Task: structure prediction
Amino acid sequence: MRSALTALLLLALAAPASAQDAGVPAAPADEAPPEPPPDAPEDEAPEAEPAPPEPPPPRMVPPRIVRSSPPEYPESRLGEHLHPSVVLIVTLDPSGQVVDAEVEHSADPDFDAAAQAAVRTWEFAAAQREGQPIASRVRVAVHFELPAFDLATGAEPVEGGAVVEPVEVLPDHPQPQPETEVEPVEEAEEAPEPAEELGVTAAIEHEVRDEDRGASSFEIDRDVLASAPRQEGADLLLSVPGVFAARAEGMAVGHRINLRGFDAEHGQDIELSVGGLPINLPSHVHGQGYADLGLLIPEAVRRVRATEGVYDPRQGDFAVAGSIAFDLGVPEDERGFRVQSGYGLYDTFEQLVLWAPEGEREETFGAVQYRRTGGYGQRRQGDAISAIVQAGARSGDWRLRGLGILYGARANLAGVIRVDDLEAERIGYYDAYGLPTAQSQSATSGRFLAGFFADHRSDTGAGGGVGLWIGGDLFRVQENFTGFTRRSRSVFTPTGRGVAGRGDLIEQRNRTMSAGLNGRFRTAAWTPWDWASARLELGLDGRVDFVEQAQNLLDAEQNRTWDELIDADVFAANTALWGDVELQLTDLVTVHAGARAALVVYEIDDRLGNFIEAERRESFLVGYRRSAGGVTAGPRASVEVKPLEILAFRAAYGHGYRSPQARTLADGETAPFTEVRSADLGAVLELDRALRVQVAGFWTELSDDIAFEPREGRLERIGATRRIGAVLHAQARPLDWLIGALSVTYVDAELLEPPPGTASDPQPAFEPGQNLPYVPPVVIRADLGARGTLVDDVLGQKLRGHVGAGYSFLSPRPLPFGGFADPVSLFDASAGLGWGPVDLDVSFFNLFDVRYAASEFVFASSWDPDAIPSRVPARHLAAGSPFTFMVTLGISP
Amino acid sequence: MKRALLALLLTGCIDTSIEATTVSLSVAGTDAPAFEDRAGHPVTLTRADLAFGPLYLCPGNQAGELCEEALAEHTDAVVVDALDPDPVSVGEMPAITGTARSFMYDLGIASLLGRDAPLVTEAARSLGDVSTVVEGQVEVAGQTVPFEIAVPIAAGPMTEGGVPVVRSGTADAFVLEILPDGASSLTVRFDPRAWLRSADFGSLVEDEACAPGLPLACAGAVEQTCSGDGSVAATRDCAALGEVCLAGVGCAERVTLDASTQPGRALVNGVSAGTRPAFEGLP
Result:
C-alpha cells in the first residue's frame, strides 16, 4: 500500500513535467519545432563549462496525412443543410496503408459511410519508431460542408462539397517527441498484419475521456433539447431522466429541482455547472448549495450531461443525487447572427441576440437574452437578463476556452397560499394574499462568472487541463411563508414584551465572492500486455468563497426591520484531490477505480451568535466568531463489460459528500460532511445514433439529509435517508428528421432515523421506512421532435418546418403529516416554419391548462392577524404556470 | 386490482408516518356543586359557566411559546356548563398524528400576537365579555349569601401576547396519542369546586357596629344606618325582606363580585393556575 502511494505521488509529480516536456506550451504542432529540451535541469549543469545538451534521438513519430481527397457529400442529404462531422479511428499498416476505418463518433450511416470511403483513399506516412515504420492508429475527423457554403475556417473547400480538416487530424509537421510516454508497438513491428492493440494514437481531440460511469450517465444532445419548447434555460433539465424542475417561488429565485428521489430544493443535492463553471453556492443563506440556473440561455446550450449518483472522482461538493453539466456552444448549422423576439400571453416578452461567428469553433459565441413577464397571476411580474460570451481556440495541442456570464433578475413573488383558504374560496389559485406583508414579497439576484480553461492532449494520449474562474453573486429575497407567527427577540414594546405580529416577511441577503481553480493530468496508456492497458488521471479542485449573509424580519411598510436573525460573514475554502485509474482489459472490460478527498475550512463571524436579550447583556456582547474544518474521502469505482459492440453492462459504486452549512458549525467542530454512498447497476444498448436505451437500478444512502423549513425559509437537517429505484431512458432517431426520448424513473425514498428533536418537538414522530416528503416516486418525461425541409423551393428558398412536444409527469408526492400532492401532468408543444433567414415559431406551454402546484408545503401558518391563529400544519402551495403561449420570430441574416 | 397496482406504482410504497386526522373534543363538568371555601364556609354552586378555548395540544413537554406547531387545535371557544357531568361534544379538532404531551388554552378571551386588545370570542361575549360566571350561595355567619362572580381572564399587558393564558408545564402529566382516522377523542372535564377552594367568603358578612364616618353596618341580618356621630340612626331586617346584610352594602338579594374582590381573585387564580381540568383521552 505504501509503495502504491509512493508510486502515485511520483506519478503526480512527474506528470506536469512530462506534459511540459512534450513541447506543448511553446510548440503547437503546426509550428516550427522548439529547441530541444536540455538533458538536465539548469541547477544540475556544470557552471564552468556547460556542456551543450545533446538532443535525444527521436523515439516516435506519429503518422501524418500525405494526400487526402474529400468525401462525397451524400446526395440524398443535400436538402437538409447538415454540416456533420464523423470521427474515425483509422488503422494504418507499416506502409501507411489504411487497413481499417472504424467509426468512433457517428453522424449517421450515410455520412459515416462517406467518411470511411474517403479515408480509405487517403495516403498516410506511417508512424515511426526509432526511425522504423510501424503500424499505428490515428483519429481522423472528417467534416462535411455543403457545396455552396463558404467557410472562413481555412479549411479547404473541395469538389463535391466536402471538406476535410487536416489540421484537426494530424500535425502537419510531426516532431520528435522524446519525452512522451508513447509505448513502442513491438507486436506491430513483428506482425505482418496490423495489430488491434497498436499503441500510437495521434489524436488531437481535447480531453478524450470516458464520461460514462455507471448506467446512469446520460447525455442529452441538442436535438433532444430542442425538440420540445422551453420557457427558459433551466427547463432543459426536464429532459434529464428523473428530473423535474419548477419555478416554485418565482423569477429571480432558483428552480426547485427533484432528481430521482431527492428533493434537491435549489440544488443542494446536485452539482451543477455551466460551461465548466460551478453554479452551487456554499453556505448560502437560502440553502446550502443554492443554485439559480436563470442565467442559462437555451439557444446557447449544446448538450446536457448528467451523472446520476456519485461514481466519478471528478464529482465534487453537492454531487449527492448526481451532477449535471451544461455544455455551451452553438452547432455549426445554427451559427451566424440571430435576432429573435418573442411575445406571448401574460405580456411576456423575450429578446435574444446571438452571434456565433461562422467558421469558428462551436464554443465560440456571444448571446444576450432579456425576458420580461407580467406574470400569470398576482405578483408574478419579473425581468431577467443574461449574457454569455464564450470563445474557444486551439493552439497546437492546446485547446483554450474563455467564458463569461452576467445575469440579473428582479421579480415580485406571490408566495404560497393555504389550500384551505383556496377551498373556501377566500383566495384564488393564482392570487397572493392581499396583506402588505404578502404583497411585499420579491426577489433580486445577480451573478457574474468568468473562467478560463486550457486543455492539452499530446499525441501520446497523455493530456490534462487547467481552469481558473471567479464569480460574484448577489441574492436578496423577501418572502413570507407563515403569515403572522413571529415574535421579535430584539425589539420590545414599552412594557417589555417582544414586538410581534408585524408579519413574517423574511428578508434574506447573501453576497458571495468566489474564486477557484482546477487542474488534472492524465497519463498516456501503459500497455503491459496486448490485452491490457492502464491510465492514471490525477486532479485538483479548489475554491474559496467569501460570503456575507443576513436574515431579518421586515415590517412591510417601509421595510422597517423588526428583528435580526442572521448577520454573518463566512470564509470557506474547499480543496479536493482526486485520482482515477482506468484499466482496459481487452475490448470487453473497462474498469475505473479512484478516490476523492476534500478538505474544507471555515472562518465564521456570526455577529448574532451567543444571542442574549439586550437587558441581560451584562457579562458579554452578542457574537460568536469561530473556525472549523474537516476532511472527507471516499472511493469511486465503476466497471463496464461490453460483450457486444452494441451492448454494455455497467456497475458503479461511489462515496460522495456535501459540505456543511458553515453557520451550523461550532468552534473547532470537525465539519460534519453529509456522506453519500451510491451504487448503480444496469445496461446500455446503443445502435449507432438510431437508438440508445439505458436501464439502471440504483441505491443511495445519506448520512444526514436536509429539507426546507418554511418557518425559517431555509434548509434544516432531517436525518439519514435512503433511496432505491430504477430508471429507464431511451433515445431514438428512427428517421433522419425524427427524434424521440423517453425516461421513466421510479424511486422509493425513506427516512432511516428520526429527525432531530427540537424544543417544541423533542421526540418527532417516526416510523422506520417512513417516506420522504415532497419526493415523487415516479417521474416520466417524453420528448418528441420532427424537423426537416417541407418544400425544396419556395421563391428560391427552402421551406423548413418543425414540430415538437414534451410531456412531464410527476406522480403524487407524499407530504409531511400525510396526504399527497396532486400529480403533475404537463404537455408542451411547438411548431414552426422557416424560410431562408426567417423563422416563425409558436410554443404552447401547459397546453391543457392543467392547474398544478409547482411545489407544496405543509406547515403552520396564520394569515389573519385579527383571528385566533392556527398552529396545526396545513397544506400550502405555490401555483405553477397555467396555459400560455409564445410566438417567436427569428431572423438570421 | 389494476387500479390498485397503478396507484401503488405511482405513489410508491408510501408510508408517511404522520397523518392528518381529527380528535373528537367534548367538554364536561362535575356534578358536585357543594364544597367548602378556604375558611370552611359551605358553598353551593348553582351556575358555573366557563368560556373554554381556543385549545392547542402540543408535541413538546412544555406548551407556550415552544408550541410553534400544534398537533391538534380548536380555534374557537365554547361555554362549558361546569356543573353538568355529561360530556357535550364541541366538534372535531383538526390534528395530525403523534403524541401530544402538553396543552394550552384560553378562556374565551384570546391574546393576539399583533394586537394590543385581546379578542373576545362569542362564547365570552355570551357571558358578558367575561371568561367565567359562577353563581351560588355560601353559608356565612348563619346567613345564606347568594353570590355571583364574573371575571375576565386574559393575558396581561406585561405578558407575551399571542400565547394562551393557561399552559401546561413539565409537572402536568398529560399524554394523548393522536391516532389516524379520527380514532382519538378528548373530553376536558372541569371541576368548579377547585376554582373557589382558595376563596374566603367570610368577609362578605361581618358584624360591625356603627362608627363615625361609617354609613352602614350589619348586625347579623339587620342593616344599621349610621348617623354622623356613629350612632344607629335606623335599622332594617334584611332577613324579613328575604335578603342578606352585606358588609358595606346593607340589605341585598345577592352579592356580585368581580376580580377586585378576594373571591374574584381566587376564581381567576383557580381557573387559570389552579387544579387543571381532567383530560380524559381515548385511547
Q: What stands out?
A: The longest helix of chain A spans residues 2-21. Chain A touches chain B through 53 residues (CB under 8 Å). Chain A is about 5% helix and 50% strand.
